[in-house]
Structures are given as C-alpha cells and as structure tokens.
Amino acid sequence: MAEIREITTLCKSGKVKDAYELAKNDLLASPDYPWLQRALGWALYYMIKSDVENGDLDSMVEHIIELKSLELLSVENDCMIFDNVQFKIAEYVKNHISLTDIDYSIKLSTLFNVLKDYCFFPSKGHSYLLQNFMKFEQWSEIADFFDWWNLDNLMPDDYVPYVNTKGQKMITLAERAFIANSKALLKLNDAIRIEEFLPKLDALMSEHEEMMYPGYFYGKLLLSLGNNEDEALKVIIPFARKKASEFWVWQLLSDVFNKDEEKQLACLLRAVHCRTQESFLGKVRIKLANFYINRRQFNFARFHIDKVVRCYVSNGWNLPYLINEWIHQPWINVAPSDDNTIIDYQSITNEILCNGAEECFAIVTYVDQKSKKMSLIYGDKSRTVLKLRIRATAGDVLRLHYVKEKDGKIKVLFARKDMQLPQNIGYAKYIKGIVDKKSDKEFAFLKSASTRCFIPPILVKKYSLNNGDVVTSLIAYDFDKKKEMWNWICVNIKK
Fold this sequence. Notes:
By secondary structure, this protein is α+β, with helices and mostly antiparallel strands.
C-alpha cells in the first residue's frame, strides 16, 4: 500500500493519473482505513488541479463528487485538502467563466450544486471562492450562494484594504461582499431575507465606521421594506455627509423624500449638479423631467429630456421608453429649454445633511490666510481649527451645524455667517474699556469694570492702540497655550 507521501510525490512529478489509480486501488482493498481515504483525497485534489488547468468542467465536477463520497474525510479534520480544492474551483471561475459566456450561469450553478452540501469554515480558500463568485451579480442563484457561504466566515484579513498594482487603495473584500449581498437581496426583494440580513449589516456599520458604502445599502434595504422616512434618514444621513459630492447619494435621498416634493426636487437637482459623467445621470434626469411634466413645467422638463437625448445618441444607445414617449408629445416642440432650478436646492440639501446635527454660534478668533485655516470658539472651553471654506475674518460670528466624532472632535457640516452675537452665550461678549499698554510692550490689556482682557500684538498694531484709548471689543474665552489656561482675549477692536 502506498503512503500519502508517495501519492503526493507522484502527483508533484506529473504522474497524477498513476497516483490517482494507485490510491483508488489501495482504498478498494481496504475501504475502512481513514488514511487511505486521505491519500485518495490528495490524489483527487491534484486531478481537480489538472482539470482546472485544462478548463475541463465536467471532469472537475466528477472528481469533486468523488471527493464528496469519501465519508471518512471531513472539512474540519482534512481542512488542507478542502481549502486547496476551494482555491482550484475559484481559479476555474476566475479563468474559465466570464459574463460574456452564454452559459456562464449554468456553469456557476453546476459548481454551486456540488459545493452546497459542504459546510466550510473560514479559510483563505473559502474567501478566494467568495471573491470570484460574487463578481457575477446577475447570476440567478447569487443570493443563495451568499447564504450558503455565510459572511460570518469572513477572516480578519478580509477586512483589510489592499493596494493594487497601480498603488490605489481598494475597498476590502468584506465591504465588497456585504455590498454584493445587499444588491442581491434588493433584486430578490424578499422581505424576510432582507430583515434577517439587516442586523448583520448594522453590526458591520458599528464595528467598521471607516467603511463608506454599507450605510447606503442599509438605507436602500430599509426603503425596500417600506420603512418610514425618519428611520431611513438616521442611517443614510451619516453616510451622505461623507459622500455628499456623489450624485447617487442624492438620488437615494430623493427616494427617501418621495412624499416631500420640495426636498425630493432639491435632492434630484443636487444630484445632476454633482461633478460626474453625464452618462451616469440618465435615470436622475428622467426622474426630474417626469417631476416637471407632472407640474406642467414643460420648459424645465425639456432641458433634462434634451440632455438625455444628446447623451444617449452620442453613445449610440437606444433611448429609454419614457424619453421616446415624451419627444413625440405636442408640447416638446413649443416648450423652450430652461435650466432654471426654481428653488435654492443647495440650502435645502445642506439642511438635509444637518438632520440630527447640533447647532451653535461660533466666534472666529484668528484667520491664517497662508494655511487657509481659521480658529473658532464654539462653546464654553471649546475651540477648534477648521479649513477656511467661507470668507471670514477675526470677529465674525458663525452659525455652525456639526456632529461629534468618537475622538471628541467636531466635524462641521455647514457654516454660515450670522449678523450678530446672541446675548445669552457665556464664551463671547462685547465690552467697552480702556487700553492699558506699556510703551516697551507690543501687547496690551483692555480694562473694564468686570474684565481684564489680553489684546494680542497683531490687534495693537492693526488698530494703532495707545495707552488710555477707549475702545469696544468682541472678546472670547480662548485657550492660552503659553500659560496653559483659559482666558479672555480680544478678537477685534472698535475705537
């Protein structure tokens, strides 16, 4: 009788069929020996390897079925054999099945049919199998494949981004798998399976906040169940804040606001004003055109219809059904094209992004034009530094909408200038006092009945302040880095 080492040696030397026949004959002579089944298992692996290299699906399936018949072999105890086999099946899918194949779906189903009796554990081979199967989004059994594969089997490495040959950082296998599973369930539209999947997607979002897209698909799955607007927004808005420049985010939000015409219109308008290829905007523009037609605002509808027609014609595509219907309507030739947006969609959509955010007044204490940054006091012993995205000078009062991040810092979502400072805040106020400046010092102090406030050299120089000057100043309770304490500091001066 041959040992496993002999079998593998024969296989590695290219004598795969000899090894297979030897192992098979040995097992026939002593069918109850586990190590003989293991030897045949390895011989079958090498046969499958050869089948993959030759692109022989039928032979590979036969050998997988024969492997399944070895009852004394188990995935748990003989994991190396089964992991290697999974690698080879994945290689076959990668190298011999493509979407251009007429029978790609049959091939995938054939392989899945011989695999689904197994219950595999997390392994590199199992992950590689997932990686290659999930590319076939149109395959009719893709949702069943995800259920069988079980995303709980993802390995720690599957959550680590990888860098491609171009040096680009790609999203993780785990994120891609959850996205593909979400798409499969949306297509299937099975409420029970969606409800079972949502907790898994929710857990992923909680554990991996760095992942961008699960929130988007969580929102889409919620909407598919008919969940209410508020519930969907709780999930979608944090994601939308991160991807506000992407048209499809606003396309999704337009679906959320399907009962609020103004917000729905604003989202659609923001979508078409995102920087993206016109060829991606067909569905959004059709939605906009339909919106305007229902309002009998044919001139606005005409603008978006013309955009779609030009895009589709230039690409040699067939016109969508609705577009083809509209261009044959009597009004199309008399309605002048008009791209007027009617509403302030930017303000409306910014407010949507601020849903659930905190609001406060902030005082600009310093602006560095070189680094394009500004320092703000936005609360009691609360300061931050932001990128300069609006025109601002020291002393400006801003109304901020922000969210707190895990590290305690704030992320400003929206900022706009306010005309005046509210009287009820304790971290900024106007005072009138007398300048106290020594001739040999570049700084000064502002003295009032209740406060002694530091005047930085930059303000002393800017306003040519002298000892005894009576001035009014906006002061803020700011952090003094040199003294490592909070003090009142003059922000601007009015003589």
